[in-house]
Amino acid sequence: MSPVQSSPEARRTRRQDAVLAAAVTVVTLGVVVLEVRLIRTDPSVALSDAQAWALGVLSCAQAVLLVGLRSRPVVTLAAVAACQVVLVAAVPDIAAHGIALLIAAYTVGAHRPVRAVLGVAVPAVLLEAVTAAAAAWGRPDAWTIVGSQAGSAALAYGGAAFVGSYVASRRRERELERLSARAQIAAQRERAETAVAAERGRIARELHDVAAHHLSGMIVQAAAVDRLIGRDDDAARSGAAWIRSQGKATLENLRQVVGLLRDDAGVDGNAPVPGLEALETLVEEARRTGTDVVLERTGGAVRLPPIADISCYRVVQQALTNVRQHAPGAAARVRLTYGPRDVELEVVNGPAARAPAKLAGGGGSGLIGMRERAGLIGADLAAGPADDGGWRVRLRLPVSPDDGRVGAGHIETGDPR
Protein backbone atom coordinates (compact mmCIF):
# COMPACT_ATOMS: atom_id res chain seq x y z
CA MET A 1 0.00 0.00 0.00
CA SER A 2 1.43 3.36 -0.99
CA PRO A 3 1.97 6.16 1.56
CA VAL A 4 -0.67 8.25 -0.17
CA GLN A 5 -3.28 5.49 0.09
CA SER A 6 -2.51 4.96 3.79
CA SER A 7 -2.67 8.64 4.64
CA PRO A 8 -5.32 9.85 7.11
CA GLU A 9 -7.08 11.70 4.29
CA ALA A 10 -7.27 8.52 2.17
CA ARG A 11 -8.57 6.48 5.10
CA ARG A 12 -11.18 9.08 5.85
CA THR A 13 -12.26 9.08 2.19
CA ARG A 14 -12.60 5.29 2.17
CA ARG A 15 -14.69 5.38 5.34
CA GLN A 16 -16.97 8.01 3.86
CA ASP A 17 -17.38 5.99 0.66
CA ALA A 18 -18.16 2.86 2.68
CA VAL A 19 -20.85 4.74 4.61
CA LEU A 20 -22.25 6.09 1.34
CA ALA A 21 -22.29 2.60 -0.21
CA ALA A 22 -24.11 1.16 2.80
CA ALA A 23 -26.69 3.96 2.78
CA VAL A 24 -27.30 3.66 -0.97
CA THR A 25 -27.60 -0.13 -0.64
CA VAL A 26 -30.33 0.21 1.99
CA VAL A 27 -32.19 2.83 -0.05
CA THR A 28 -31.81 0.78 -3.25
CA LEU A 29 -33.14 -2.35 -1.57
CA GLY A 30 -36.19 -0.46 -0.38
CA VAL A 31 -36.77 1.04 -3.83
CA VAL A 32 -36.46 -2.38 -5.53
CA VAL A 33 -38.96 -3.99 -3.13
CA LEU A 34 -41.42 -1.17 -3.75
CA GLU A 35 -40.82 -1.34 -7.51
CA VAL A 36 -41.42 -5.11 -7.65
CA ARG A 37 -44.66 -4.77 -5.75
CA LEU A 38 -45.87 -2.02 -8.06
CA ILE A 39 -44.91 -4.00 -11.18
CA ARG A 40 -46.76 -7.08 -9.99
CA THR A 41 -49.93 -5.05 -9.59
CA ASP A 42 -49.81 -4.37 -13.35
CA PRO A 43 -51.03 -7.47 -15.22
CA SER A 44 -49.56 -6.17 -18.50
CA VAL A 45 -45.99 -6.58 -17.20
CA ALA A 46 -44.69 -10.06 -16.50
CA LEU A 47 -41.97 -10.26 -13.83
CA SER A 48 -40.87 -13.68 -12.66
CA ASP A 49 -39.37 -14.39 -9.27
CA ALA A 50 -35.97 -14.95 -10.88
CA GLN A 51 -36.17 -11.56 -12.57
CA ALA A 52 -37.23 -9.95 -9.30
CA TRP A 53 -34.24 -11.49 -7.54
CA ALA A 54 -31.94 -10.43 -10.36
CA LEU A 55 -33.26 -6.88 -10.14
CA GLY A 56 -32.68 -6.75 -6.39
CA VAL A 57 -29.27 -8.43 -6.35
CA LEU A 58 -27.78 -6.48 -9.27
CA SER A 59 -29.15 -3.15 -8.05
CA CYS A 60 -27.69 -3.73 -4.58
CA ALA A 61 -24.40 -4.87 -6.14
CA GLN A 62 -24.18 -1.54 -7.94
CA ALA A 63 -24.64 0.24 -4.61
CA VAL A 64 -21.98 -1.87 -2.89
CA LEU A 65 -19.49 -1.02 -5.64
CA LEU A 66 -19.58 2.62 -4.47
CA VAL A 67 -17.01 1.73 -1.78
CA GLY A 68 -14.34 2.63 -4.36
CA LEU A 69 -16.15 5.70 -5.65
CA ARG A 70 -13.57 8.43 -4.99
CA SER A 71 -10.42 6.33 -4.91
CA ARG A 72 -11.17 4.80 -8.35
CA PRO A 73 -14.17 6.65 -9.81
CA VAL A 74 -13.76 5.52 -13.43
CA VAL A 75 -13.30 1.86 -12.46
CA THR A 76 -16.32 2.11 -10.17
CA LEU A 77 -18.47 3.57 -12.94
CA ALA A 78 -17.33 0.84 -15.35
CA ALA A 79 -18.21 -1.88 -12.82
CA VAL A 80 -21.61 -0.31 -12.14
CA ALA A 81 -22.21 -0.06 -15.90
CA ALA A 82 -21.33 -3.76 -16.30
CA CYS A 83 -23.92 -4.67 -13.67
CA GLN A 84 -26.43 -2.52 -15.54
CA VAL A 85 -25.77 -4.41 -18.80
CA VAL A 86 -26.38 -7.73 -17.01
CA LEU A 87 -29.53 -6.25 -15.48
CA VAL A 88 -30.81 -5.27 -18.94
CA ALA A 89 -30.18 -8.82 -20.14
CA ALA A 90 -32.07 -10.26 -17.17
CA VAL A 91 -34.97 -7.79 -17.12
CA PRO A 92 -35.23 -6.09 -20.55
CA ASP A 93 -38.74 -4.78 -19.91
CA ILE A 94 -37.65 -2.47 -17.09
CA ALA A 95 -35.63 0.53 -18.33
CA ALA A 96 -34.49 1.75 -14.93
CA HIS A 97 -31.08 3.05 -13.86
CA GLY A 98 -30.55 3.13 -10.14
CA ILE A 99 -29.19 5.63 -7.68
CA ALA A 100 -25.74 4.04 -7.63
CA LEU A 101 -25.25 4.52 -11.38
CA LEU A 102 -26.32 8.17 -11.15
CA ILE A 103 -23.93 8.79 -8.25
CA ALA A 104 -21.02 7.11 -10.05
CA ALA A 105 -21.61 9.04 -13.29
CA TYR A 106 -21.93 12.31 -11.33
CA THR A 107 -18.64 11.67 -9.51
CA VAL A 108 -16.72 10.90 -12.70
CA GLY A 109 -18.17 14.02 -14.34
CA ALA A 110 -17.13 16.14 -11.35
CA HIS A 111 -13.60 14.80 -10.86
CA ARG A 112 -12.46 13.52 -14.23
CA PRO A 113 -12.22 15.00 -17.75
CA VAL A 114 -15.07 14.57 -20.23
CA ARG A 115 -13.20 11.90 -22.17
CA ALA A 116 -13.24 9.67 -19.08
CA VAL A 117 -17.04 9.89 -18.92
CA LEU A 118 -17.39 9.25 -22.64
CA GLY A 119 -14.96 6.34 -22.42
CA VAL A 120 -17.38 4.53 -20.12
CA ALA A 121 -20.78 5.97 -21.01
CA VAL A 122 -20.71 5.51 -24.79
CA PRO A 123 -19.74 1.81 -24.72
CA ALA A 124 -22.21 1.23 -21.87
CA VAL A 125 -25.12 2.76 -23.80
CA LEU A 126 -24.23 0.75 -26.91
CA LEU A 127 -23.90 -2.47 -24.91
CA GLU A 128 -27.23 -1.88 -23.21
CA ALA A 129 -28.88 -1.31 -26.60
CA VAL A 130 -27.32 -4.45 -28.07
CA THR A 131 -28.18 -6.48 -24.97
CA ALA A 132 -31.77 -5.25 -25.01
CA ALA A 133 -32.05 -6.12 -28.71
CA ALA A 134 -30.73 -9.62 -28.06
CA ALA A 135 -32.98 -10.16 -25.05
CA ALA A 136 -36.10 -8.95 -26.89
CA TRP A 137 -35.27 -10.68 -30.18
CA GLY A 138 -38.38 -11.88 -31.95
CA ARG A 139 -40.80 -9.89 -29.83
CA PRO A 140 -43.11 -7.41 -31.58
CA ASP A 141 -42.06 -4.63 -29.17
CA ALA A 142 -38.34 -5.30 -29.53
CA TRP A 143 -37.50 -1.89 -31.01
CA THR A 144 -39.53 -0.17 -28.34
CA ILE A 145 -37.54 -1.99 -25.67
CA VAL A 146 -34.23 -1.15 -27.37
CA GLY A 147 -35.15 2.53 -27.71
CA SER A 148 -36.36 2.68 -24.13
CA GLN A 149 -33.20 1.10 -22.73
CA ALA A 150 -30.82 3.16 -24.90
CA GLY A 151 -32.64 6.43 -24.19
CA SER A 152 -32.80 5.78 -20.46
CA ALA A 153 -29.09 4.90 -20.40
CA ALA A 154 -28.06 7.98 -22.37
CA LEU A 155 -30.14 10.21 -20.12
CA ALA A 156 -28.80 8.64 -16.92
CA TYR A 157 -25.11 8.72 -17.88
CA GLY A 158 -25.19 12.04 -19.72
CA GLY A 159 -27.44 13.89 -17.28
CA ALA A 160 -25.58 12.83 -14.13
CA ALA A 161 -22.15 13.46 -15.68
CA PHE A 162 -23.24 16.88 -16.96
CA VAL A 163 -24.50 17.93 -13.54
CA GLY A 164 -21.25 16.74 -11.95
CA SER A 165 -19.16 18.60 -14.50
CA TYR A 166 -21.20 21.78 -14.02
CA VAL A 167 -20.88 21.64 -10.24
CA ALA A 168 -17.12 21.08 -10.53
CA SER A 169 -16.82 23.98 -12.96
CA ARG A 170 -18.62 26.29 -10.56
CA ARG A 171 -16.40 25.07 -7.75
CA ARG A 172 -13.29 25.83 -9.79
CA GLU A 173 -14.63 29.29 -10.63
CA ARG A 174 -15.20 30.02 -6.96
CA GLU A 175 -11.69 28.82 -6.18
CA LEU A 176 -10.25 31.06 -8.89
CA GLU A 177 -12.26 33.98 -7.54
CA ARG A 178 -10.93 33.26 -4.07
CA LEU A 179 -7.35 33.08 -5.35
CA SER A 180 -7.88 36.27 -7.33
CA ALA A 181 -9.21 38.00 -4.23
CA ARG A 182 -6.16 36.83 -2.30
CA ALA A 183 -3.88 38.10 -5.06
CA GLN A 184 -5.64 41.47 -5.02
CA ILE A 185 -5.28 41.69 -1.25
CA ALA A 186 -1.60 40.80 -1.54
CA ALA A 187 -1.14 43.41 -4.28
CA GLN A 188 -2.90 46.04 -2.18
CA ARG A 189 -0.71 45.14 0.78
CA GLU A 190 2.39 45.40 -1.41
CA ARG A 191 1.27 48.80 -2.73
CA ALA A 192 0.64 49.95 0.82
CA GLU A 193 4.09 48.78 1.90
CA THR A 194 5.63 50.52 -1.10
CA ALA A 195 3.77 53.71 -0.24
CA VAL A 196 4.96 53.48 3.35
CA ALA A 197 8.54 52.98 2.18
CA ALA A 198 8.24 55.94 -0.19
CA GLU A 199 6.81 58.09 2.60
CA ARG A 200 9.65 57.08 4.88
CA GLY A 201 12.10 58.10 2.18
CA ARG A 202 10.31 61.39 1.79
CA ILE A 203 10.47 62.04 5.52
CA ALA A 204 14.15 61.10 5.58
CA ARG A 205 14.92 63.52 2.73
CA GLU A 206 13.06 66.37 4.41
CA LEU A 207 14.70 65.79 7.77
CA HIS A 208 18.12 65.42 6.17
CA ASP A 209 17.77 68.62 4.18
CA VAL A 210 16.58 70.68 7.14
CA ALA A 211 18.88 69.23 9.78
CA ALA A 212 22.01 69.06 7.61
CA HIS A 213 21.67 72.66 6.44
CA HIS A 214 21.11 74.26 9.82
CA LEU A 215 23.13 71.97 12.05
CA SER A 216 26.25 72.01 9.88
CA GLY A 217 26.22 75.81 10.04
CA MET A 218 25.66 75.73 13.80
CA ILE A 219 28.62 73.35 14.22
CA VAL A 220 30.91 75.66 12.24
CA GLN A 221 29.69 78.73 14.14
CA ALA A 222 30.03 76.96 17.51
CA ALA A 223 33.67 76.20 16.72
CA ALA A 224 34.22 79.88 15.91
CA VAL A 225 32.51 80.97 19.14
CA ASP A 226 34.72 78.59 21.11
CA ARG A 227 37.82 80.29 19.70
CA LEU A 228 36.45 83.77 20.44
CA ILE A 229 35.64 83.18 24.11
CA GLY A 230 38.06 85.24 26.22
CA ARG A 231 39.43 87.02 23.16
CA ASP A 232 36.39 88.83 21.78
CA ASP A 233 33.41 88.38 24.08
CA ASP A 234 31.14 90.60 22.03
CA ALA A 235 31.76 88.55 18.90
CA ALA A 236 31.32 85.35 20.90
CA ARG A 237 27.97 86.56 22.25
CA SER A 238 26.91 87.54 18.73
CA GLY A 239 27.87 84.09 17.48
CA ALA A 240 25.99 82.43 20.34
CA ALA A 241 22.92 84.53 19.52
CA TRP A 242 23.16 83.42 15.91
CA ILE A 243 23.41 79.77 16.98
CA ARG A 244 20.32 80.28 19.15
CA SER A 245 18.42 81.82 16.23
CA GLN A 246 19.48 78.94 13.99
CA GLY A 247 18.22 76.47 16.58
CA LYS A 248 14.85 78.20 16.53
CA ALA A 249 14.90 78.21 12.72
CA THR A 250 15.71 74.50 12.72
CA LEU A 251 12.80 73.78 15.03
CA GLU A 252 10.47 75.89 12.89
CA ASN A 253 11.60 74.17 9.71
CA LEU A 254 11.09 70.76 11.28
CA ARG A 255 7.56 71.83 12.14
CA GLN A 256 7.09 72.89 8.54
CA VAL A 257 8.35 69.50 7.39
CA VAL A 258 5.77 67.78 9.57
CA GLY A 259 3.11 70.09 8.15
CA LEU A 260 4.18 69.29 4.59
CA LEU A 261 4.16 65.55 5.22
CA ARG A 262 0.68 65.78 6.69
CA ASP A 263 -0.61 67.83 3.77
CA ASP A 264 0.37 66.57 0.30
CA ALA A 265 -0.52 69.94 -1.18
CA GLY A 266 2.18 71.52 0.96
CA VAL A 267 -0.16 74.27 2.16
CA ASP A 268 0.08 75.38 5.79
CA GLY A 269 -1.39 78.77 6.46
CA ASN A 270 0.30 79.09 9.86
CA ALA A 271 3.82 78.18 8.71
CA PRO A 272 4.50 78.58 4.98
CA VAL A 273 6.84 76.02 3.48
CA PRO A 274 9.93 77.68 1.97
CA GLY A 275 10.19 77.86 -1.80
CA LEU A 276 12.22 79.69 -4.43
CA GLU A 277 11.02 83.03 -3.04
CA ALA A 278 13.04 82.26 0.10
CA LEU A 279 16.37 81.87 -1.74
CA GLU A 280 17.53 85.29 -0.51
CA THR A 281 17.13 84.15 3.09
CA LEU A 282 18.82 80.84 2.33
CA VAL A 283 21.80 82.58 0.72
CA GLU A 284 22.03 85.04 3.62
CA GLU A 285 22.16 82.14 6.08
CA ALA A 286 24.95 80.55 4.05
CA ARG A 287 26.91 83.81 4.12
CA ARG A 288 26.58 84.03 7.90
CA THR A 289 28.14 80.59 8.22
CA GLY A 290 31.18 81.76 6.28
CA THR A 291 30.32 80.76 2.73
CA ASP A 292 30.81 83.46 0.08
CA VAL A 293 27.62 83.07 -1.97
CA VAL A 294 26.22 85.19 -4.80
CA LEU A 295 22.60 84.90 -5.93
CA GLU A 296 21.68 85.71 -9.53
CA ARG A 297 18.10 85.84 -10.83
CA THR A 298 17.09 86.04 -14.48
CA GLY A 299 13.64 86.22 -16.06
CA GLY A 300 10.16 86.67 -14.64
CA ALA A 301 9.18 84.45 -11.75
CA VAL A 302 6.89 81.50 -12.53
CA ARG A 303 4.48 80.14 -9.95
CA LEU A 304 5.33 76.47 -9.43
CA PRO A 305 3.27 73.76 -7.78
CA PRO A 306 4.10 73.56 -4.05
CA ILE A 307 5.91 70.22 -4.31
CA ALA A 308 8.05 71.52 -7.20
CA ASP A 309 8.71 74.81 -5.41
CA ILE A 310 9.93 73.22 -2.20
CA SER A 311 11.90 70.55 -4.09
CA CYS A 312 13.83 73.22 -5.99
CA TYR A 313 14.47 75.06 -2.74
CA ARG A 314 15.72 71.89 -1.05
CA VAL A 315 18.08 71.14 -3.94
CA VAL A 316 19.70 74.58 -3.56
CA GLN A 317 19.76 74.15 0.22
CA GLN A 318 21.49 70.78 -0.05
CA ALA A 319 23.94 72.08 -2.64
CA LEU A 320 24.98 74.94 -0.34
CA THR A 321 25.24 72.51 2.58
CA ASN A 322 27.57 70.38 0.47
CA VAL A 323 29.69 73.45 -0.32
CA ARG A 324 30.03 74.23 3.37
CA GLN A 325 30.85 70.63 4.30
CA HIS A 326 33.02 69.51 1.39
CA ALA A 327 34.55 72.75 0.08
CA PRO A 328 35.03 75.08 3.06
CA GLY A 329 36.18 78.55 2.10
CA ALA A 330 35.14 78.14 -1.54
CA ALA A 331 33.10 80.85 -3.25
CA ALA A 332 29.73 79.78 -4.62
CA ARG A 333 27.18 81.13 -7.05
CA VAL A 334 23.47 80.37 -7.13
CA ARG A 335 21.84 81.16 -10.45
CA LEU A 336 18.06 81.01 -10.92
CA THR A 337 16.77 81.41 -14.47
CA TYR A 338 13.08 81.55 -15.42
CA GLY A 339 12.72 80.67 -19.09
CA PRO A 340 9.59 80.46 -21.26
CA ARG A 341 9.49 76.66 -20.98
CA ASP A 342 11.68 75.78 -18.01
CA VAL A 343 13.12 76.90 -14.71
CA GLU A 344 16.85 76.33 -14.30
CA LEU A 345 18.82 76.31 -11.07
CA GLU A 346 22.59 76.13 -10.91
CA VAL A 347 24.83 76.05 -7.86
CA VAL A 348 28.54 76.25 -8.68
CA ASN A 349 31.42 76.43 -6.23
CA GLY A 350 35.17 76.63 -6.61
CA PRO A 351 37.72 74.27 -5.10
CA ALA A 352 38.02 74.04 -1.32
CA ALA A 353 40.26 76.64 0.33
CA ARG A 354 41.08 74.30 3.23
CA ALA A 355 40.58 70.70 4.17
CA PRO A 356 36.97 69.89 5.02
CA ALA A 357 36.10 69.03 8.59
CA LYS A 358 35.08 65.46 9.36
CA LEU A 359 31.39 65.62 10.15
CA ALA A 360 29.37 62.60 11.21
CA GLY A 361 26.48 61.54 9.07
CA GLY A 362 28.06 61.76 5.61
CA GLY A 363 27.84 59.12 2.93
CA GLY A 364 26.29 60.67 -0.16
CA SER A 365 22.73 60.84 1.12
CA GLY A 366 22.51 64.52 0.19
CA LEU A 367 23.06 63.87 -3.51
CA ILE A 368 20.75 60.87 -3.36
CA GLY A 369 18.06 63.11 -1.91
CA MET A 370 18.58 65.67 -4.70
CA ARG A 371 18.24 62.95 -7.33
CA GLU A 372 15.04 61.66 -5.78
CA ARG A 373 13.57 65.13 -5.54
CA ALA A 374 14.37 65.83 -9.17
CA GLY A 375 12.80 62.55 -10.23
CA LEU A 376 9.73 63.31 -8.13
CA ILE A 377 8.95 66.53 -10.01
CA GLY A 378 10.16 65.40 -13.46
CA ALA A 379 13.26 67.59 -13.55
CA ASP A 380 16.68 67.06 -15.16
CA LEU A 381 19.49 66.95 -12.61
CA ALA A 382 23.21 67.00 -13.38
CA ALA A 383 25.82 67.00 -10.62
CA GLY A 384 29.54 66.62 -11.03
CA PRO A 385 32.98 68.25 -10.93
CA ALA A 386 33.46 71.69 -12.50
CA ASP A 387 36.37 72.58 -14.79
CA ASP A 388 38.21 74.52 -12.05
CA GLY A 389 38.14 71.63 -9.59
CA GLY A 390 34.97 72.74 -7.87
CA TRP A 391 31.49 71.27 -8.12
CA ARG A 392 28.41 72.07 -10.16
CA VAL A 393 24.78 71.13 -9.55
CA ARG A 394 22.29 71.99 -12.26
CA LEU A 395 18.55 71.36 -12.19
CA ARG A 396 16.25 72.07 -15.12
CA LEU A 397 12.51 71.86 -14.55
CA PRO A 398 10.32 71.86 -17.71
CA VAL A 399 7.29 74.10 -17.25
CA SER A 400 4.19 74.46 -19.41
CA PRO A 401 3.93 78.05 -20.67
CA ASP A 402 0.14 77.91 -20.24
CA ASP A 403 -0.50 76.73 -16.73
CA GLY A 404 2.86 76.25 -15.07
CA ARG A 405 2.64 72.46 -15.00
CA VAL A 406 5.94 70.68 -14.71
CA GLY A 407 7.09 68.11 -17.24
CA ALA A 408 9.33 65.05 -17.33
CA GLY A 409 13.11 65.03 -17.28
CA HIS A 410 16.07 62.79 -16.59
CA ILE A 411 18.80 62.60 -13.98
CA GLU A 412 22.52 62.67 -14.69
CA THR A 413 25.04 62.70 -11.86
CA GLY A 414 28.74 62.34 -11.36
CA ASP A 415 30.41 60.78 -8.35
CA PRO A 416 28.29 60.68 -5.16
CA ARG A 417 28.92 63.56 -2.84
Automatic annotation (TrEMBL):
Matching InterPro entries: HATPase_C_sf, Sensor_HK_TwoCompSys, Sig_transdc_His_kin_sub3_dim/P
Record field: transmembrane: 20-38, 50-69, 75-104, 116-138, 150-168
Keyword Nucleotide-binding: yes
Cellular component, GO annotation: membrane
Residue ranges of domain Signal transduction histidine kinase subgroup 3 dimerisation and phosphoacceptor in the record: 199-264
Name the UniProt record assigns to this protein: histidine kinase
GO molecular-function term, one example from the UniProt record: protein dimerization activity
Catalytic reactions on record: ATP + protein L-histidine = ADP + protein N-phospho-L-histidine
EC nos: 2.7.13.3
Organism: Myceligenerans xiligouense
Record keywords: ATP-binding, Kinase, Membrane, Nucleotide-binding, Phosphoprotein, Transferase, Transmembrane, Transmembrane helix, Two-component regulatory system
Domain of life: Bacteria
Gene3D superfamilies the UniProt entry points to: 1.20.5.1930, Histidine kinase-like ATPase, C-terminal domain (3.30.565.10)
